[in-house]
Amino acid sequence: MNSSQIIKELNFKAIRSSGAGGQxxxxxxxxxxxxxxxxxxxxxxxxxxxxxxxxxxxKLTKENLLILFCEETRSQHKNKEIAxxxxxxxxxxxxxxxxxxxxxxxxxAIIKKRIENKKRTSExxxxxxKPKLD
Length: 134
Known about the structure:
Layout: H1 3-8, E1 11-15, H2 24-27, E2 31-37, H3 46-55, E3 65-70, H4 76-95, H5 108-126
Antiparallel strand pairs: 1-2, 2-3
Protein name: Aminoacyl-tRNA hydrolase
GO molecular function: peptidyl-tRNA hydrolase activity; ribosome binding; translation release factor activity
GO biological process, one term: rescue of stalled ribosome
């Protein structure tokens, strides 16, 4: 995955942000809407696209568009940087394939130690009972 190539494929749109800012918020579009067309991306391989479709299925639209919003700061440029960073983190995180788990058995010494420990605790508890006086 080439991150500089992917960044060129991103589409940005500035929108009026909600929240603090007073009159300033009504005139400046500082909220960023980042869209990425996963289906028509040239920088991802087909197998990476399929893997991302399955992993990001809840975040994709019906047209396989990934949409992210950022309105953390009052600066449009900072919001754009934050949105790009979030996007790259999301893609990198979801492209990582988990390692296969190798099933293991406990060693014989550990099994023996566990059984001895169980015997000790059962003896300890048996000594707590009242003695039988027949």
